[in-house]
Amino acid sequence: MNIRTICLAILAHGEASGYDLKKHWEDGPFFHLGGASFGSIYPALARLEQEGLVASREETQPGKPPRRVYSLTAAGSKAFIEDMSAAPEPDVFRSHFGIIALCAPFLSRETVARAIDERLAQQRAEVSTLEPLVESERHSTSGWLVDWGVTQFKNEIAFIEKNRSRLEALAGTAKPGEHLPVCALHDTDTQTAAE
Amino acid sequence: MNIRTICLAILAHGEASGYDLKKHWEDGPFFHLGGASFGSIYPALARLEQEGLVASREETQPGKPPRRVYSLTAAGSKAFIEDMSAAPEPDVFRSHFGIIALCAPFLSRETVARAIDERLAQQRAEVSTLEPLVESERHSTSGWLVDWGVTQFKNEIAFIEKNRSRLEALAGTAKPGEHLPVCALHDTDTQTAAE
DNA sequence: GTCGTCATGTAATTCGTTACATGATTTT
DNA sequence: AAAATCATGTAACGAATTACATGACGAC
After folding, report:
1. pTM for this one?
2. N or C: which end of chain B has fewer CB within 10 A?
């Protein structure tokens, strides 16, 4: 999922300026899906225009700087649909919290407890951003996505609350210098060592 | 979450070569957390060694090329704990499926249906990778993470199965050229247009 | 005799971020 | 008077990927 595709996806909803695109990501409830800086948006739009996938017109507005408004061309629309139809690479979430959970035996109880608290706070914050939208977006385009998000975050919160003591109990259980397999499955070291 | 941190996290479990590190990511059940190529692992290890966070020794093995085995130094251990204690940036998942859900009105029913099927297949594949580990890893370091993953994936599958018709019903509902707000909340265009 | 595994590394390229540069207007 | 908002863009930099280069050994 590159910026180009996200630009096309947002422009499919209607024309927008580079500034608008950034606002959709930063202030919108879907910032999980993106988040991009001007330094990548403007060049991306310029390149899309060069490729003929978007067209732009300058819009002068009184009392404000002129804005360059982009919209999909027919070719852009086609490219967007092709992008959406392409087989997706599996989602990768490089999660700080996941690494902490994996490394709990090497970390102090306080570190683990704090990580759990922070994770819960973060997921709760996401829920309180999205939950008010469930009603207002029920019959809009984004209603489904809002529900998806709320459900995911709530489920994770429930899981962590239920299993936090089990994770905290793992904290600090590795003696200094102790060798633990990352995952017992494919750790050939331990097997070789045992032979 | 950069490669450096993941290297430290895996090396905290015990010494490993660059080749080992890659295997932990690619073949292990935790590839969601990472996935990195040799082109990034080897330079990362070299830099960590320069900084004094890891030490290496060459291990000659009969019939196989010699391997350079890395392990954390005291400074590396400290750096690892600091990295883990640092406040995490909120997880961002740039999800292809999420974008499709958001753009359903602009896509055909077939495209949306296929995307749903692919998503379900993908999440089910993750479950069948992780589920067999629930038992074997129950009392190991990674047990918690395995449970976390299984729960997350199963919950998402359940949600999609329950709500797929609702998403499919949205497909193709936008007329060509129609302007739809990405999210009703902060779409000033529609409000301005309505004034 | 070719392909897969073990093993390390470099170079070119892509993608994106941060910081910088500019400038009018409105709010505090 | 300072700060925030609207608005666009470039340049330097960083992080990671892909592709390339090398080479021995074992399996089929």
Report:
1. 0.90
2. C
